[in-house]
């Protein structure tokens, strides 16, 4: 019921911006940005009953839904992100093989789409299709530090278990004959930098612009009394965090070996068990005292 109410609300927003009847359906949440805005997709139909996929951004502060792009077909977009100026969109299309196809694995296609006014915006495939799950995410921050006429944006591309790359996209501001400015994108995507090579888990904190991931590394030597000395050849799962800044490169802000996490978890678990045991023991003693008190009262009476 709650999902239906949200869909009705979003349809109402679209209807308020159009003179024609809006029949949007199949709403999906496919992304979230630093300011709390959410990326959504929905399906509409033409007069010829052709299904089209729309992608837009919903801003909770202003309760507005802005359409970013309308595709000429119904695509299976599973995840997306847009830069701060809403001029570049990255998204992932998941293609599920048909029954008569030899390929049995689903494929993930990452694309970059310029969102420039009065331009023929065509999607650009960022990487080759992958059978491993792919996700994309724009990094927010100041993008015009080096020149007022150049806007440099960055986005992350996650390939499950394999690597995390960072791409840079540059937009140039051109002066028009009428004195106005016009942003342009040449469609060139430079080679990415690999910031994480092999990982088992990753999560993006869009509010704080922090990338958390678990990977394997050689354990740090511990000299604490009673601590088990690990072999240098042994590798341990480690939780690391990369902080992304507006004007500076990213930096590793922390890492924590899994053995430490596990030890702390066991400590807290034992502590909770001890508290629960004491609580249970106290409750039993109180019940016993109450029972004895009731028995004494019955004898006295």
UniProtKB/TrEMBL annotation:
> Signal peptide: which range, if any?
none
Coiled-coil intervals, chain numbering: none
Q: Which InterPro entries match?
A: GSAP_fam
Task: Indicate the transmembrane segments per the record.
Answer: none
Renumbered residue ranges of the record's region Disordered: 276-301
**Compositional bias ranges of the Low complexity kind:** 292-301
GO cellular component annotations of the record: trans-Golgi network
Q: Name one GO biological process term.
A: positive regulation of amyloid-beta formation
Instruction: Spell out the PANTHER family in the cross-references.
Output: GAMMA-SECRETASE-ACTIVATING PROTEIN (PTHR13630:SF1)
Q: What is this protein called?
A: (diamondback moth) hypothetical protein
